[in-house]
Amino acid sequence: MQPLLLFPALDSHLLKHPSQSAVFYVWTHLQVSGVALWTNLCASRTWHAVPLIAHSPSWFHLSLSLASLPTNQRYQYTLKYHHDGQEKWLGSVGENGAITIVAPPSLPPIPFIASPHVTLQANRRINNQSTRTTFKIDQGSHVIPLADVSNMHSYMALARKSSSWLVPVSGMARFEKDGRPWYFLIYMDNTGVVWVWWVKSTPFATGWLHVSSSVLELHTQGGHGVELFCGTTTSMDEDRIMAILGNNSKKQQEDGVMDTYLGYCTWNALGLDVNVALIDQALASLSDLVGYLIIDDGWQQQHDGRLTGFDADRGRFPLGLVGSLRYLKQHHPSLRSIGVWHALWGSWFGIDPSSLGKLYEPKVAALLDSKKPVGLVNHPAAFYKDFYQALAYSGVDFVKIDNQGAVDDLILATRHEIWHQYRLAATTAVEVSLSLFDRDDGFAIIAPSVGSSSRVSIRVEGEAE
């Protein structure tokens, strides 16, 4: 672990407008003093020290106005501090962060895609700083050049890792070689314009993005056309990006626990070996108090990967779910919320058809590359209603819903309909129950396959006795 962390790091190259500020943060576990940013961020471009403000012995902060600095100039920065009576520099000689100040950009014209397979459907100016354009793609298999992206400054894309996972891919100055399909790409060009490209597939056709020799391409397959979207804005601002993506809903109310306190998820440390004793030990070992806890995969009653009941596994949680949650909250008073993991269809391989599944008319479906079928039910709404009521009784505050099992791995023509039924069953159980988990915000479904991501407002009615 590095003795001192600087953000933005010394390998960063930032683009800034004169109206913006350059903001820096430092975290360290050392006893340090004299923490100062050394930079030539000034009109004369001379190197000078600017002390950071200490908010605690570990946290430091600095905000610099860029309003008086000329544009189209590149500036540098590094960090110096004192530790054990010695003056030290962060990084090595010549390893400096960079900031280029550019003039506020203008929105570019509507992207022109020279292909007979592409039809411009709509172009919407969201405000003076943002636009969104929609294209319809003809059915069939196509490779369509979209744009020259050689002027890319920095980017982030979502690449398909498997049938159930999208992974982020990012970089600066050049696109890394990646043969995986991309379904979303956001990048800033060297003028400061932000470009957002994404593809809307259907159950019968799919499209994805790919960069080849600095040219962004759209690849399509299938019998029905896909939709392509392109958004532009003049600032990497969250509200503008969300407006481009079509999310015009009001921001969710901030949650005092998750926005304020440190949280702990059992997965990385304990994996499937999770039990109440190990959770108790982990919470006690943390130097900072934890405000919320996620008990991840491994807590459920299950047989051969299929859910057999709503309570916790008694071998791992001898007090049951209700007793275990009460014990953890009593022994760790800082805990304000405890949530549990479950898969979209109960557990990894669904619901056990010979036990719990009997209550909801069980059925089984084969999975690609697996000898074990998944246990589904014909009445997912009834299952979720009972499931969440049981969790509420046990004192669960929220859930983490995982799309493990992957709808795209089901060998069923109706697999997307089944996914939608389960997703709708979960959200309906929330909405109908007025207060399914005593929370106002939502937890994201971990379901990053195409068309399979959503947010669920989860509240639970009732409380443990």
From TrEMBL:
Catalytic reactions on record? Hydrolysis of terminal, non-reducing alpha-D-galactose residues in alpha-D-galactosides, including galactose oligosaccharides, galactomannans and galactolipids; alpha-D-galactosyl-(1->3)-1D-myo-inositol + sucrose = raffinose + myo-inositol
Pfam families, alphabetically? Raffinose_syn (PF05691)
Q: Name one GO molecular function term.
A: galactinol-sucrose galactosyltransferase activity
Q: Which UniProt keywords apply?
A: Carbohydrate metabolism
Has the keyword Nuclease been applied to this entry? Answer: no
Q: Which InterPro entries match?
A: Aldolase_TIM (IPR013785), GH (IPR017853), Glycosyl_hydrolases_36 (IPR008811)
The record, for Gene3D superfamilies, names: Aldolase class I (3.20.20.70)
Provide the family line: Belongs to the glycosyl hydrolases 36 family.
Record's protein name: Uncharacterized protein
| Species in which this protein is naturally found | Absidia glauca (Pin mould)
The organism's lineage is:
Eukaryota, Fungi, Fungi incertae sedis, Mucoromycota, Mucoromycotina
